Fold this protein.
Amino acid sequence: MPKVLRPHPSVYPLRLYGDPVLRRKANAVTDVTAPVSVPGFAPVSLKQVARSLLETMFEARGVGIAAPQVGLSTRLFVAVEYEDDEEENEGQDKPLRSKMLREFVFVNPVLTVLNKKKDDQMTEGCLSIPNIYEEGVKRNRAVRVDYLDLDGQPQSIEAEDYLARVFQHEIDHLNGVLFLDHLPASITDEYRKELSALQRQSKANLKELEG
């Protein structure tokens, strides 16, 4: 009996730490007009996926989210720039959409480092690893991202400091890398209990999705 796919949601369920999709290198988009199948849901356009990714990100109070974080192993991520310090926005009650200055949608992004000086002073977290935040993740201070937009047109953007960090974090996701991978094992060991709980929740979520 064929599996019944769910209707495309406005907000996706997040894939959590321990989900194998978060460790895979995502596939390049070869045709921006082709339907996209997020596992468990009916196929839709890439533009619809991008809209739902943004809504998922706002719902989770984030500044960026990559397609693998909703189970889609595709080189696509979205991000936003807010009015004031993005770090201060996380965890507040005011809707983040009201503070948005710009939104970004990147298809097949390619990162070029513009400033090799590293910054490790900002706190970093991840929607797929909720409630764990750490300083010490070294990121390049300035980068350029070359990418396709949702119409398949080549674009390029340069970013510094916090926005550069966001872009690097999301491109890491497309390569199967999590921000905890950049930290010493002694730090991640401190979260062993929390990470084990996330792995158990991830297995339960996958079982429900496949059911």
